[in-house]
Amino acid sequence: MDTKTLDPLPMHGPDLGLHPDDAELVEAEPETKQEVLENKDVIVQRVHIDGLGRTKEDLLGYEIADVFMAKNLIDVMKKSHEAREKLLRLGIFRKVEVVIDTAEGEDALPNGLDVTFEVTELRRLTGSYNTMVGNNEGSMVLGVKLPNIFGRAEKLTFQFSYGTKETSYGLSFFKPQLGHFDRNICVNLYKVTGQFPWSSLRETDRGIATEFNFPIWKTNHTLKWEGVWRELGCLARTASFAVREESGHSLKSSLSHAMVIDTRNSAILPRRGALFRINQELAGYTGGDASFLKEDFEIQLNRRLFWDSVLSASLWGGMILPVGDKPASIADRFYLGGPTSIRGFSMYSIGPQSEGDYLGGEAYWAGGLHLYTPLPFRPGRGGFGDLFRTHFFLNAGNLCNLNYGEGPRAHLQKLAEYIRWSYGAGIVLRLGNIARLELNYCIPMGVQIGDRICDGVQFGAGIRFL
Amino acid sequence: MSLAAEAFVSQIAAAEPWPENAALFQPLKGEEVTILLPTLQAYLRMCNLPVQVCCRANAEHMSPSGKVPFIHVGNQVVSELGPIVQFTKAKGHSLSDGLDDVQRAEMKAYMELVNNMLLTAELYIQWCDEATAAQITRPRYSSPYPWPLNHILAYQKQWEVRRKMSAIGWAGKSLEQVYEDVSQCCQALSQRLGTQQYFFNKQPTELDALVFGHLFTILTTQLTSDELSDKIKSYSNLLSFCRRIEHNYFQEHERPGLDPLSIRPSLM
């Protein structure tokens, strides 16, 4: 075996320097040469990356190392394509092109190949400016992004939103580990404000979050520490006293861990695959005054049926256990209901409430069964019509507070009585790979006193649907 | 409150009688010096209206106007002396019904004097005098919160109060000037009180509750120096006025659940 092909680390072998005159454009190889190379073993002698500016070379070595392992031309093409994908995934190049040519130079072997990646780096600074208009509120949003600031695929983004009612901002720094892009660290600094009319609550969060993502076998894990200064207030003078009692400042310092296994082909309207996500959060042991243990999980299964239709089943659940004698804050509890969870009910309007303000609950479960079919008579097939699906659904769930003195049996019983459920049909529109819009006709059932329903036509927009 | 809001509140208030479970919310004991607490307690006792006193760390944020203490009656939440007086009036309890128009105008004038002078002076001494702020006020204010929130909130509050002081022109005053202003205010009150039992003869009014509240706070709050309480003690009729109210309204009745002012050092 030639020692050169056994050299995995590109530190000594290939020449990663700039070769400004080396850019040989791909030309159609003469037919005879191609035929010869296809059957022959080849050795990749050099891999160049042209067009580097601020990117450091050691970062790229890991991404292109596999190309050296290729044994014949088809393999070289496949591995180069994979390396190209990896380079693009780093998020630091606008364009990556691959050129494969025969080796040149003094030490060129007769079956040697040179692979050149021609890259165009992203600009150092990109900015965006939008204006947004919402419910009686207008705001100006300024975004600034610095990709690859230190040369090793680090990314810094800053977003600032200045509105007539609220101001919010966020600064985020992302750094992947050299050679393992899936392992990365992300640090966020943010201030966000939210208004929740279903609880007559206004919340302002200022916080820092540090998260560390890493894959283990087929699962993705995230470890996160978050410190948030939360300020709660009443949205209106007519807020109920239970919500008024929650006003004030608190500090939450929590450690959390999340595990995700996602084999779906897409996050929006998947056709096959499954998702399993479980998240736990422990607050109070690293400072702050919010103290609880929170668990929640999400399961989704999708299966393709006859005639291009998809059957999808999902289950969500969660529980929060306050540690110590203070009850969980309204900002940490779970909420249920609305066009993105149990359809047919108003937004987050299920469960414990006081004078019309929904207080959330300490435990919940929700399940959905969906059948997605193409539109009847398939209008616009092959084009626009493919973005729409008809959708038949059955949703059920419950949200309640638990008395932790009783045992788990009592808890299950409590979650099983007074189940709210609904069924109906509608149309779903897929927006790119990011969001989905739904227009449904819903019939809510099992409605308890205090729940607010939205029977009839309901519109929903969002990213995560039950 | 706007006129419409006031009318709304009094309509709603007039509908129901004073409930048994009315509650007065104040910050945690020792957390903040609640200037108006003795005022409100005195006023409600003078009207013979029972309240339970509840201590909450976030009372200041629960209050609709940001001022403590506030009362929660039925499903109404009312803060500050003026709105509370109107609220109780709408329910049929009033202390100033017996006054004629001239006296009522005079009462309003003196209440304004007390608010402008004594209240501002107390805020100044607590937050703008660096020694008091560092030793007493800030540690007290930040005590219910964890680090680092305690420092952030204490400094934020101090900055707010200082900003308010400079808006009304008190920022340039020195501590001695403030003491002098308080002394002058007490002199005016002392002259008005004269040898009477209460400011308007035999019956106490909200002015009596207000003056009592402020004087009691100054006399019993621990500050870095006793100069201010000494100044007040030099006006003997004010001192005996305070003692009288404390004796009549805070030591006679021993209703369970009420917070006797005797947790604080008594004037006796």
Structure commentary:
The complex is a heterodimer of chains A (466) and B (268). With 466 residues, chain A is mainly beta. Chain A has five helices and 21 strands. Chain A has helices at 31-39, 57-64, 73-89, 241-244, 408-416, and strands spanning 43-50, 93-102, 112-121, 126-134, 137-147, 155-163, 167-177, 180-196, 201-216, 219-234, 248-262, 273-288, 292-304, 310-322, 353-354, 357-358, 363-373, 388-400, 420-431, 435-445, 456-462. In chain A, the strands form three sheets. In chain A, strands 4-5-6-7-8-9-10-11-12-13-14-17-18-19-20-21 form a 16-stranded antiparallel β-sheet. A three-stranded mixed β-sheet of chain A has the order 1-3-2, with helices on one face. In chain A, strands 15-16 form a two-stranded antiparallel ribbon. The longest helix of chain A is centred in the N-terminal third of the chain and has 17 residues, at 73-89. Chain B is mainly alpha-helical and 268 residues long. Chain B has two domains: 3-90, Glutaredoxin; 101-249, Glutathione S-transferase Yfyf (Class Pi), Chain A, domain 2 (Up-down Bundle). Chain B contains eleven helices and four strands. Chain B has helices at 3-15, 37-46, 59-62, 81-90, 101-128, 130-142, 149-167, 175-193, 206-220, 227-233, 236-251; strands spanning 23-26, 52-55, 70-73, 76-79. In chain B, strands 2-1-3-4 form a four-stranded mixed β-sheet, with helices on one face. The chains are: A mainly beta (466), B mainly alpha (268). Chain A binds chain B through residues 229, 232-234, 237, 240-241, 244-245, 247-251, 287-289, 355, and chain B through 56-58, 60-62, 64, 72, 75, 77, 145-147, 149, 152-153.
How many extended strands of chain A? 21
**What proportion of the residues of chain B is helical, as a percent range?**
55-70%
The dominant shape of chain A is: globular
Distance between the termini of chain A: 56 Å
> Spans of chain A with pLDDT under 50 lasting ≥5 residues?
1-29
Keywords (chain B): Acetylation, Membrane, Mitochondrion, Mitochondrion outer membrane, Protein transport, Transport
Protein name (chain B): Metaxin-2
Family (chain B): Belongs to the metaxin family.
Organism (chain B): Scleropages formosus
